[in-house]
Structure prediction request, 1384 residues.
Amino acid sequence: MLDGLFRPRAVAVIGASANPYSIGHIVVRNLCQYGFKGPVFPINPKGGVIRSMQAYQSILDVPGEVDLVNISIRNTFVPGVLEECGKKGVKFAIVHSAGFKEVGPEGEALEREMVATAHRNGIRIFGPNSQGIQNADPEVSVYANFTFVPQKPGNISIIAQGGGMGEMLKLHLHNVGLGHRMYCSYGNECDLTMPEILAYYGQDEGTRVIMMQTESFKDPRAFLEAAAEITPHKPILAMKSGRTTEGSVAVSSHTGALVDQAAMAEAMYRKAGVVAFTDTHQMVKAAIAMSTQAPPPGKRIGIVTNTGGPGIQAVDEAVSQGLQLAQWSETGTAKLRDSLFAEASVGNPVDVVATANHDHYHAAVSTLLAEPDTDMVLVFFVTAPFTDTDAIATRIKEATAESAKPVVVVVETYSEHYGLIDKLRAADLPVYEFPEDGARALAAMASYSQLRGRKREEAPELDVDHATAAAIIGEYAGRDRYLPQHLAFGLLAAYGVPVPSVAAVGGEDDLATAAAVTGFPCVLKVDAADVVHKSDEGGVVLDLQDAGALLAAFRELRDTFTGDEVSFVLMEQLPPGRELIVGATASPGLGSLVMFGLGGIFVEVMKDVAAAVAPLSRPEARELMQAIAGYSVLEGLRGRPGVDLVAVEDLLMRIARLAADFPEIAEMDLNPIFAYPSGRVPTAVDVRMKIS
Amino acid sequence: MLDGLFRPRAVAVIGASANPYSIGHIVVRNLCQYGFKGPVFPINPKGGVIRSMQAYQSILDVPGEVDLVNISIRNTFVPGVLEECGKKGVKFAIVHSAGFKEVGPEGEALEREMVATAHRNGIRIFGPNSQGIQNADPEVSVYANFTFVPQKPGNISIIAQGGGMGEMLKLHLHNVGLGHRMYCSYGNECDLTMPEILAYYGQDEGTRVIMMQTESFKDPRAFLEAAAEITPHKPILAMKSGRTTEGSVAVSSHTGALVDQAAMAEAMYRKAGVVAFTDTHQMVKAAIAMSTQAPPPGKRIGIVTNTGGPGIQAVDEAVSQGLQLAQWSETGTAKLRDSLFAEASVGNPVDVVATANHDHYHAAVSTLLAEPDTDMVLVFFVTAPFTDTDAIATRIKEATAESAKPVVVVVETYSEHYGLIDKLRAADLPVYEFPEDGARALAAMASYSQLRGRKREEAPELDVDHATAAAIIGEYAGRDRYLPQHLAFGLLAAYGVPVPSVAAVGGEDDLATAAAVTGFPCVLKVDAADVVHKSDEGGVVLDLQDAGALLAAFRELRDTFTGDEVSFVLMEQLPPGRELIVGATASPGLGSLVMFGLGGIFVEVMKDVAAAVAPLSRPEARELMQAIAGYSVLEGLRGRPGVDLVAVEDLLMRIARLAADFPEIAEMDLNPIFAYPSGRVPTAVDVRMKIS
Prediction:
């Protein structure tokens, strides 16, 4: 439990100083200014007065118990001070000081020493090189952080790796008059980890929404587990910074890693039910909506407006974001017609017209909320000169009070009518400036509903020949090499992944035996680590109809591809099917990621790939297929047959299980797999597999 | 010239009233409150005092000349009043009143009568059912509009079809402390048209940027011409509302219209060099940057920050928007190293670190602006407690003052330091709240630079057989029918579009003659208006190697496809090539739109199509190809040959010329076209053409 950190009874500030620009000073000021409920003890070996408080020369001089210390002294002094803190019974130390892991080996050693000292003394370290923590719960009101945004209680908690980004999230909440619940920017994460803090937020009853920003995952598996525990009962909204730099989806199908950090984040977010964002402002706006509104039961939006254009903008954005326009029942339509002006439009959007008053708004909003096929409502209101804005706010509030469906309001007005916005916000209604923002916030809520409503299953045990697979891998483990193709196929076969008949070919003498295995027609391929695009490089001969053709092909390939590492493989020739690409990449700290796409241009040109964390449950396998834009090709287009989707699920589950069971598989690339309509199993036609 | 509208010497308000909620009252108030330089004359048949001004009973009683009247009286009274206005020499009438075209046939008749009366009296009508106009030029300061956003001079002019959207654009400029130049929301557009107003804005020296919102184009060709005149010297930023409702890209390749209103807008914007937006807020933010910053010479961005995370966000967004990260010269890097703290990072982003002061910012920004390979700079600044924000603003201003390259600033701060933002804005620097906003604004400017820098050429005359084409079309014009396939191919051939040898087949007796034309192997196809997807429906037999096979195929098709309208066609069989789809749709008021995509899943699944206005110049033909995501397939992927791009340009130019020359071609769908590497011309393999 992190109560000692986020709900400390007393805080000591080690490195407190009279210099108003020092971190130690600012932390003392923030703690006092925002009314920390316990005592604050400034510590400075020279003593002195800091913000009218007498400083203690050592923490050992402080009367009573201290749960938390903020430390902003020179890096090398930290371990010594922690020894004293241990004697005092301190439980948590926020280390603001820099000069640790981030500066090289010496700092790294110091960081290790600091953690060891802390643990020996029963202390957990937050940081170092960190901003600090806050908890705006009025019962605690702790601002043990050196930043500047005023603290005010709210129900959105923030966890950020970077201080600049964390502060930005908090700042925007402040700018729209909202506060936050807990806040932390965790810096080096040397001891106390992000997943531990996330789990703590998850259990905090005062936290309704969690916003997080991450640059890199130190322990992705722990994050995944913590997040998955939370999302069934409260939303996590997340951004992964660096999606393009280290990050843009690497899809060159054969070469290098098939998945990257950004893909890893995407896969983890999907698996854990986290709502992912790429834009800071959009995430904050969605969080604001979720902090007061319940997730919608579906994705059908109703829109009320008093002017046409912004209503159209809301429709455009809502539809672009995957929402659907709701349709009213006959009763609903009649009710709208009865209660609105004759010139009002009772379609969707409902245009109550500019002269509509508060009662018209009440009628429109409450009618839409009562509609069984409407899941959420966006209200647009431009302050026409003839409307009573106070009454508008009151009546919209009344209309929404009884409904569990989410409502957002977009107000077009200027400073004279800001009271309207304040009043709507006081009624717990999210208010935005542009119609697109309202539509996007609702769409984010619908995404959360969809993620939360998914069937969650454990990946099942499968009937596999683990021993054979282990034997193949055992022979190559530690050699960081590609498996010969016939062994790679053997490995797949051991895990029940359908493969063609295949036989290794060392020389001309092997051809007859090999052909007996594969039959005719067959395919002869070169098998060498440095021949990545076999077909492009002329290393594949198809349609070999008899022994003569096979011999001729073999001689040609053998003359073309020379070298110690080159061998050849003969394979049964399969009828052409829909090409799939499935890859897996070992992802340290997480396990293995499975990548899925369609063959050819889908991956190469359209970069249409998705990734998931191995192993996969059946619903996760389907979800991975559905995550690509080309999914409709698999379902079947315009009457043309699709592929056996359940068989592809099976295939994905088996490949993912193999990757999960053997982290030694650094890379696995099944390209292509031929998939067929029901009646024929999808089969891996080519495979590359690297064992580390 | 529209000076009488936007620079009137005197304004009369007909329908002025003492009721403060009436339009007539509000217009009088706005005119007076914002200091219109000429006299304002309230007109009310009952006389009376309106805002301390004596009302005149008729415009004829007003002393002196009146250029402009605002009319908000009952619809049926308008024509009568216009007669009086004519006697008075009024030049422009803004009609706020509704009850015209938008209410049905009676209103439409009244609207026609009003326009006729106006024209007879030398008056142009703005509206009806319109908000009005503004010109914040201090020499005029006319607020002849009944809305509420305070007027302040600026250099961004706004033209909006919808009042709600126009006001929203103006409102946001106001909210960030900016004003605007001219403004209008034009309503029914019964007389004075949007393109006329746009042209006026284009010639106004005080207008540096134009923002426009449109729901539908009354005269698209006039818009295209007006916009194309303006964009070489000032940017037009535009939104088309309704991009999804009437609007989402219709790409079912054979059926219905191949292009829609949204595609039309996209095509016109690209041709005219207009920067297109789908998000209101993004457009406003881009306009703000363009109102003070010059377009960048290229797309390489340099970033300066004092905290890491937001710098990464800026990188992510910049790269996603098509910008490139600039690289510094050795001199530049050395200069950064010399002038910044040792712990600063001198890559891109330059991280000056949180303790950096104003001089560090000055050094970083001025160094980047001096770099030859940096086209624009984004400055991020979080107000650390130890910085002198006033000095920061001053030094950033100094660093940017001498450079013509655009700079945007993102400031992370709260109300205590808003003075910093004001000071930066006063120095003509655009200031944003989120790093993504700064990156997007710069990316929009780079788009404008790219559009402005394109080679502009007229579509050339081509060597075509117009007479043959006219004869074929003449025979079918007015019958709203599909051309028989052999005639459609003949039409294409007349315009130099390569087609296979083709012959119509009526019955078995024609087979021998037809086969003599096409040779073997050949392809037999059904030709019927209601067989849209011939292959899917079994209406195409490929690979006919001899007369026997042909006869058998013919008999089978004839038995399968029956009916009066069914005929058959025999075609030369071409070697398979890269499939292209080219379509054209008559687009009333504009001419014809040409649609381009790649065959199969590119269009059907990925909706990867682009549209252009016919006819096409050679650069426009290439631009149309480059507008699709799959363009790299045409260039050639991973060493595989691409297609002859110049030959595809030729093809597109010929098809576009045909569409442009014959507006009777309601729809034309060449699907597929086989394109080949150089040495073989791309050839249309199937065509459907509907003549209206």
